[in-house]
Amino acid sequence: MAVDTKLIARLREQTGAGVLDAKKALQEASDDYDKAVEILRKRGQKVAAKKADRVASEGLVEAYVHGQGRVGVLVKVNCETDFVARTDKFKELAHQLALHIAAFDPTYINSSDVPADVIAKEKDVYLELLTKEGKPADAIEKIMVGKLNKYFSEVCLLNQAFVMDDKRSVQDIINEKIAELGENIQVSAFKRITL
Q1: What is residue 130's predicted lDDT score, i.e. its pLDDT?
Q2: Which residues are CB-neighbours of 154 under 8 A, at least 6 positions away?
Q3: Would you say 56 and 186 are in contact if contact means Cβ atoms under 8 Å apart?
């Protein structure tokens, strides 16, 4: 089946996928562009999972200052090799992450960084609210899981909706870059300072 080269080019531009990967995704999706994008995202998540255990000791620190010097961000993004750290695509990712941190002001990198006492306090608040609303006990647990996930999406960098594409999380963006660059990529630290 012949695939429209304009669709391949558009898919490559949006996802950063290679020519063959874009063509295969479009063939698999029967030329449905949105399905092809989803196929490539899922492949990116699989690639990211395979590379998650690899050591990411290289990388760079990106600095960003916004609002005429009123907000400043430093973010440390790691990868496996200095070769990848020097690429424009990696530098662009680090810059976009710094922009995101400036805009969304996360508190933690991921949900495993949230201290147990903070989670316990959140659960206590939710429990009190749900009990006052008269929710049944069996439903309260399910609702609390959803409320905790919402909390994590507000305070954890990797769980937040990405500033440049709110349909994807920051982790989704990183996973796509992992698939594209072929290396494990991690945000290991950040600091946001405001005046």
Answers
A1: 85
A2: 160
A3: yes
